[in-house]
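#lab-general

N.A. 3:47 PM
ok so I finally got the sequence cleaned up, no stray characters, all 423 residues accounted for. can someone with queue access submit it? mine expired

B.Y. 3:52 PM
send it over

N.A. 3:53 PM
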Amino acid sequence: MKRLIFAFLLLPFMAQAQTLDECQQAAERNYPLIRQYDLIAQTTELTVSNIGKAWLPQVSATAQATYQSDVMSWPDQMQTMLNQMGLDVKGLKRDQYRIGIDVNQTVFDGGRTRSQQEVVRRQGNVQAAQTEVDLYAVRQRVNEMYFGLLLMDDQIKLNKDLQELLAASESNLASMYKRGTAAESDYNNVKAERLKVAQQLTAMESQRRALATMLGAFCGIEVNNVMKPVLTPTDATFDVNRRPELRLIDSQLLLADAQEKLIDSSLLPHLSVFASGYYGYPGYNMFEDMMGHDWSLNGMVGARLTWNIGSLYTRKNDKSKIQLQRQAAENSRDVFLYNNRLEQLKYSEEMERYHQLISADEEIISLREKVRHAAESKLSHGIIDVNDLVKEINSENAARVQRSIHEIELLKSVYDLKYTTNN
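B.Y. 4:20 PM
back already:
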C-alpha cells in the first residue's frame, strides 16, 4: 500500500519530464507553419473541384441588340412580281434583337481535364513537401535548447556534489580546529570556497530557468524536467536517408510527369454537344421574317468536334523544358546527398572523438579522486595545507565537469546525425 501511495505521489513529477521526441513533436504542432498543411490541402481540393466542373453543362445567356447598315432583301424584279401578286413584302429590318441561351456539354476532351487535375494535385504535393522541409528545421532548434538544458542539469548536479565535498572538508576542518590541529584560516578558506561554489549554483539555476522557459515557449508546453536520451548500439548506424528534402525532389519529378501528360492530352480533339435557342427578330426563317416583323422562338442542337493543332508548334520546346526540370531536380538531389554525406561523416567523426575523450575522462577522474583522497589524508597529518586540498578538489570537479560536457556533446552528435538522416 505504501508503494502504491508513493507511486501516485511521483506521478506529477514524472509527467513533467519531457523526452526529446515529445518536445520536437510539440514544437512542430506549436509552430505557426503547421497550419500551412491545411491551407494547401483546402486550396488544392477547391482548384481540383473547379477544374472537374468542366464536365458539367456550360450554360450562357445572351441579350443582343444591333443595327445594320444593310440587310438581306429581295431582288427588285422579284419584289415587283410579288407586289403584282398582291403580296406586301416588307423585307428585313435593320434593327435586330435576340435574347437567348446556349448550352454546351463536353463529351470527350482527350483527358485534358483529368491531366489538369493531376497537375494541381502534384503542385499541392510539392507545396506540402516544401512546408515539411521548412518545418523540419524546427527539430534542430529544439535539439540545441534541449541539450543545452541537459548540460545545465549536469552542471548543477556536479555543483551540488562539489558543495557536499567541500562541506565535508569544512566539517572535518571545524573538528580539527576545535582540537587545535588546524588553523581558523584553513576552516574559513574551505568555507569561502563552498560559498563561492554555492554562488555559482545560483547563476546556473537562473540560466536553466531561462533556457527551460525558452524551450517551453517554443514547444507550447511547460517544460520543467528533461530526460537524458539513452544510447543504443544502433543509434550510430543509419543506412537510409529519410530527409524531407528528398521527398520534395520526388514530388517535383512527379509534377514533371503530370505536366508532360497534360502536354500530350492537349493534342487530342475535343468533342462536345450543344443546344442553343433564342427569342427575337429575325429568326432562322429569313423568308418569313421578310414578310413580317414578328419575334419568334428559334432553336438548334448539334455536335461539335474541334482539334487545335497549335500545340504542335510548341510541343518540342515544352517537352524539353520539362526534361530540364527533371535534370534540375536530379541535380538538386545529388547536391543535397553530397553535402548530407559530408555532414554524416563529420558527426560520425565527432562521435568517435567523444568516445575516446570520455574513456580518457574516466581514467582522469579515477586518478584525480585518488589524489584528492591522498590530499585529505595528508591534510589530517599536517603534511599539506588546505589550499592544496582545495586545489585537488577543484581539479577533480573540473575533470567531472569535462566528462559531463563530453557526454552531452556525444549525445548531441548522435542526435545531430539522426537529424541529418531523419532516423
